[in-house]
Structures are given as C-alpha cells and as structure tokens.
Amino acid sequence: MTTTNPPAAQAGSYRVGDLELNRIGYGAMQLAGPGVFGPPRDRAAAIEVLRTAVELGVNHIDTADAYGPYITNEIIREALFPYGDHVHIVTKVGVVRDERGGWLPANSPQSLREQVHDNLRRLGLDVLDLVYFRTLAGIDDRATVSDTLIPQFEALAELQQQGLIRHLGLSTVSLDQLAEAQRIAPVVCVENFYNIANRADEAVLAATAEQGIAYVPYFPLGGFSPLQSDVLESVAKRLGATPTAVAQSWLLQHSPNILLIPGTSSVDHLRENIAGGPGPAARRRRRTGRDLSSGRPRKGAVASRLARPYPGRWQRLAGTSTFTAVRGRPVLRAPVARIIGIR
Fold first, then answer.
1. N or C: which terminus of the chain has fewer CB atoms within 10 Å of its end residue's CB?
2. Angle at Cα 154 formed by Cα 17 and Cα 98, nearest 5°?
3. Are 63 and 90 in contact (CB under 8 A)?
4. How far apart are CA 7 and CA 12, in angstroms?
5. 8 Å CB contact between 231 and 292
6. Which residues are catalytic?
7. Residues 6, 269: Cα–Cα separation, whole Å
C-alpha cells in the first residue's frame, strides 16, 4: 500500500538527472553477512527490511555487486523484483572481493564492463539507473590522489551510450577527478565519505551543490562504528531525540543536494532512520546557536537570535501540531523534536 506522503518523502526530494529521488534512501551494504561478506544470518529479515523501506517511501536503494559478494543484489531482486518505476537501484563498479573478503581494485575497462553486466543480470534489469565508478583510494587520501579516471570513465560512458546505464556517478574522488570525468560525460552524483564528525570533503560538497550535482555521503551515521560525540549526545538530549536523528537532520539541512542512504539490517532501526529525517518543521531552517563540531555557540546572527524572542513567523507556529507555546515562545512537541534540522 502506498501513501501520498510517505515518511521517506517528507524530507523532500532532489533531481538526479531525470530521476526524482527522495532525500532519504537506503544503503544495502549491511544486508550481507558480517564484514559485508557471505550470506546474512537471517535472509528473511533482510528481505523484510527492503520491502519495509519501499513501503515507507524509499525510492533510492544503494548497492554493489561487491556486497557479499553478489548476495546483496540477489536479495534485492528476491525482495523487490519487479521494481516498478518508483524504485531506483543505484550500484557501484570498480571494486571486487577476494576469497577472504578483502576489497580489491578491479578497474580495467574490461573488468568494469563485466561488472556492469553482472549487476544487470543479478538485479534482473535491462538498464541500470545510476552507476558509480568507485575508486579504491583511502578515505583520508582521496583529496591527494592523482590517478586518472579517463580510461575507466570512458568505458562506462560507452556503456551509457549503448543504453545499459542511464546516469553516471563517482565515488571516493577528488575535485580534480570530478572535473576530469565531467570532460568525458555528465556526472549526476558523487558519493564520498562525509558526516557530521568528518567534514574533510566540504570542498567537493560545495562544488557539487553549486553545479546541481547530488552528493551522497556514505557512512552518514558513522557506518559500522556509530558516531560518538558528547556535543551530539547533548543536543539530542535537549531535543528529546536520538543522536542518529540529530546527525541525519544536520546533514539534510547542511546542503540541499545531500541525499542520505543510512544502512541497517534491522526493520526497527530502519524505521528510526527514516523517522529521523526532517519534516515540514525542518524546512523552516530553524537553527540552534551551538556548533556541533565544537560545542561552542555560533557567532553572529544565528546565535544572537536565540537570545531574543522568536520573530513573528515563529510566534505563529505556537499552538500548531508541530509546536506548543511555553512563555510565549514556540517549543517543539516531543514527537517532532527528533526531526528538526540542526545546522
């Protein structure tokens, strides 16, 4: 059953090429076994997670044939095929696994062609909506790598011209690599490591926002090691929210081109992740006077605004389903506190 405004759609959407993707998606990495290797402990539970995600309005599912390997894509097909026009499967090529689960580069043009065809076959698709070329650069050194992407991206652009790929993206790349790829074919999305506690990729994020390119931060909630921050915990406690919800809302408010793909193998955790996205209240761009990266109050107008009564537009919110009035000021109702945007 579908609803007109499902939870995953309440954070809005972003145009990625000709795809309208809800800003809260789902990353399927954790559907495989421990270490993203081998089968899951409970395949039925993995299928339930995927079907629940779609029921909640997720229309952007991020995967790769290297997850498992192959297993995650096979589970996606079992759970969701036929996908319909409202579900978009996004995959990556450029990395494969060895027999022990290690991650190995596989980025020759011929290997990339084979990986695209493998993704098509295992997912049961004739065309892949979006394919990232994933470099194997380390998270911390991607800004300094000088490896050219020309042969690899040219091979993927040829597959796009053949009608096997709809759109092209890049993952774990520098600004120079993005510019190099754009000289070959349009890049509609970049997927790099970024979250509230790890912002080294700010320049790439800003460049993509300026150019209207979607930016997908992988490990938006810390990945396999959840974000730990005293300031994050403090803000979450003050809002009556979970740290996960605050970190996720911060990302969605930080830049309009950010799309989230939090991953989980738990239906309960999935529901929490999707509920953590900002709804209509967050789109009013409410700000706190505290910088989550340092714990110190912000300087300037944002912080000083908190020291005086809210302007008229906030006063009008008091008494609505989102806010209640306390001493003449609007205060978030508890159920909404977890979806407010923190910048």
1. N
2. 95
3. yes
4. 10
5. yes
6. 67
7. 17
Q: What's the number of domains the chain is made of?
A: 1
Report the 10 Å Cβ neighbour count for 60. 30
Residue located via tokens 């145009």:
15
Q: H or E segment at 27?
A: strand 26-27
Show the domain range for 102: 8-266
pLDDT band for position 11 (cuts 50, 70, 90): very high
Please indicate, yes or no, if residue 229 is contained in any of the structural domains: yes
Alpha-carbon distance of 206 to 69, in angstroms, equals 33
What's the whole-model pTM score? Answer: 0.80
Least confident span in 12-26, 224-238, 307-321: 307-321
Cβ neighbours around 331 below 10 Å, total:
13
Q: HSE (CB half, 13 Å, CA atoms) of 342?
A: 32
Residue 155 has pLDDT above 60, yes or no: yes
In sequence order, the 6+-apart residues with CB closer than 8 A to the CB of 93 are 64, 65, 106, 112, 115, 116, 119, 131, 132, 133, 134, 156
